C-alpha cells in the first residue's frame, strides 16, 4: 500500500484529502521504508499523520511534539508524544539529545515563520547526514501566519537562503550555520524539503573549511602559522567573518623550505603578503620562525590557532607545543593536511592529543581540530 493510500485511511490532510504531500514524500522516503529510522513530527493535532508514518515505516521510532498537552492521548506502543513549544530551543535541544538523532523531521506545527525557523535552528544539528527536514504549509507564511511576500524574516526567504549554503563552493560569499551541510533544497507548492549532507567535494580548500568554522564560533583573535601569500587570511577577512575578527596574525619565515622556491621567489611572495597587510586592517604579519613567534604572545591570547607550515613530523610537533599555551581555554587549535600524504602531521597530532578529541572541519576535509 502506498503512502497516500495509508494517509487516506488515517484521514491526514497530507494525503489527497487536501494537500497531496504524500506523493512527494514517497519519492524521497521510500528507500527508508523498512529501515529502523527515527522520525519526528512537530504538530500532532488528532494524531492522523503520526499513525500514517507508523504504518508506512513499520520498523521506525515515531515521535511527535505539540504545544497542547492533550495531544499526548494519541500515543500508542509505536508513537511517543511530547508536550512542548516548537520555538523553545531548550525544550527541543533536551528532547533531541534524549531521542535523536533523526532521519526525518517534519514541521507541521504553528506554520508561523518565527516558529518554523526556531525549530529548524534547534533541530537541524540533530538531523543525520543524509536525513530530510520538511517544512509544510508555507502558504500561510505569506499572509495569515507570516510577515508577507518576500519579507526578509519570512520562512520562504530563510529557506531560499539555504540554496546559497548548498552552492557555497562556487560563490564563497555569504556563510551561515548550514554552509557545507546542505545536499538538496527542494521546493513544491506550500512545501520545502531539505536534505542534510556533509560536504564531500574532492577539492575542498582549507579556507572553504575555515570560513564556516570561524563564522559558527565567532573567533575574534586568530593566528595562522604558515601563511605564504595570505590567501587564506584575505578570503577569510573579506568574507562575513571580517565583521567580527579583531586580529588575524600571519606567521611565516618566507624562505625556501618545504616549497621548492628560490629566495627571489619567496621575496616576491612576501611582497604580496605585505601588500595584503597594508590593505586589510586586521591582518598583521610576523616574519620569523614559528616557535620564536609564539614566544612574542602572552599565554591564552588566541581564540583560534591554525597550523599550516612545515608538514614534517618534528616541525609540526614543535608548532603544536609552542602554540598550544597561546590558546585561550575553550579555543580551538586546527591544522591542514591531515592526510596519508603527510604522515608527519597525523603522527604529531595523534601523539599530542587523544584520537577521540580530534575532529575535522568538514566530512572529507584535511583540516583537523582540537578544542582546549
Helix content: 25-40%
CATH class of the largest domain: Alpha Beta
The CATH architecture of the largest domain: 3-Layer(aba) Sandwich
Strand order of the largest sheet: 3-2-1-4-5-7-6
Number of helices: 14
Walk me through the structure.
The chain has 14 helices and 14 strands. It has 372 residues and is of the alpha/beta class. The chain has a seven-stranded mixed sheet with strand order 3-2-1-4-5-7-6, sandwiched between helices. It has a seven-stranded mixed sheet with strand order 10-9-8-11-12-14-13, sandwiched between helices.
Give a brief rundown of this model.
This protein has 372 residues and is α/β, with parallel strands linked by helices. It has helices at residues 3-10, 21-29, 48-56, 89-99, 113-123, 155-160, 162-166, 168-171, 206-217, 231-237, 263-279, 290-294, 313-323, 343-352; strands spanning 38-42, 61-66, 79-83, 102-107, 127-135, 182-188, 191-196, 221-225, 247-252, 283-287, 302-307, 327-335, 359-360, 368-371.
List keywords for this structure.
Rossmann fold; single chain; seven-stranded mixed beta sheet; 372 residues; 14 strands; alpha/beta; 14 helices
Task: Give the secondary structure arrangement, pairings included.
Elements: H1 3-10, H2 21-29, E1 38-42, H3 48-56, E2 61-66, E3 79-83, H4 89-99, E4 102-107, H5 113-123, E5 127-135, H6 155-160, H7 162-166, H8 168-171, E6 182-188, E7 191-196, H9 206-217, E8 221-225, H10 231-237, E9 247-252, H11 263-279, E10 283-287, H12 290-294, E11 302-307, H13 313-323, E12 327-335, H14 343-352, E13 359-360, E14 368-371
